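Most newcomers find our protein records easier to grasp once they have seen one. To make this concrete, we reproduce a full record directly below:

===
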Amino acid sequence: MDTNYNNNANMGQGGFPPVQGPDMFEPERKEQKKKLVRRFISGILVGCLVSLFIIAALYLFFGFRTGRATAPGLAGTAGSGELINEETLNKIRVLENTIDTYYYKSDVDKEQEAIGMYRGLMDSLGDPYSVYYTEEELNDLLSETAGVYYGIGAYVSIDEEMNLPRISGVIPGTPAERAELMTDDIIFEVDKESTQGLSLDEIVSMIKGPEGTTVHLTLLRGEKRDTVEVDVERSAVEVPTVSTELKGENQDIGYLRITEFDDITPDQFREGMAELRESNIKGLIIDLRSNPGGSLQAVCDVASEILPEGLIVYTVDRNGEREDYRCDGKKQIDIPVVVLVNQYSASASEILSGAIKDYGIGKLVGVTTYGKGIVQRIFDLQDGTAVKLTVSDYYTPNGNNIHGIGIEPDVEIEFDPDAYAEDKTDNQLEKGLEVMQDLLDN
């Protein structure tokens, strides 16, 4: 779990929207040259970014109290580190000369070589959550974490039959809704450029843009595929992370789903709870299935809306230093709670479900959670780039470290994708409603 940034684990389940996740990439060539390139990359990784890693380590040593730390510039000191020394520097020069002299392509991108070194050094830690971000990737991460981006407010997916982007949903109150875009509209062109054969990421980047600018969409609508031309003015779009419904025979059970924990999630949670409370709900079902986690502060703010006074979670770093995150208990929930979890409920969602279970204020229904019990922090490298490092373990209020283990539900039930595909029957939710009724009856 990141203190201020999304973990973005690549997780999804039949019947639930998939969660996008991180990427990994590398190069190739002939047998002999492949070996040379591999040796080059592994050697260079250990060398060139070394100063950056040492600086980041120093920052970890002195400790941080915010999610994003600022590291000094890249002009680090060679000093007495085990990695940055004359031998490794000389080896980097030899490897670079070898590449420049013998590699079969003459137009090697030096910037990409450098990025490969930085990624490789982080990758050498063997920790999938410690990564290097380019300036563009960092900006995307910040937007995702804030839960706000600049665009039109439409969900886009690829239509498999036509191999073209399709609008799969429109966020209320956004430019997409005002422009009367419709679910299932096919996006044929963006600013008169064809979308045929483009990846989803490429299409989304074409649609997004600075606030106040306009994007022209050519759409194919309806069964007859009528052509619709529309201009949509981009603006700041707040992505919904919380949704609510009323469930149960008497519509007196509140259902609240949290898709991830972004900066905007606590406010959306409060608004959702206020709406449900107005309907005089007798119980609350919190759906954390396929929730990949997110901001530590966000989940603590949400937990403070329902937990009794005491610990929410605590972290322990490599020096054994402990940091407690506490709840004042002033808003402790006074109705029964059921939490839906699955194997993709990770990180921050495990903090909330773990605390609810430890305090005994609710029942967990589903299957054992993902098991991500570690915390990451972002270190700003002051050149527009950053690294994310795992800095501590976290523990539930009862002192449980769930990393690699997960949290077992009180009532175990596997999701039935066949039933959901047939008639949208959600057997885990139905079981949750049964458990809720038992809590209300007792």
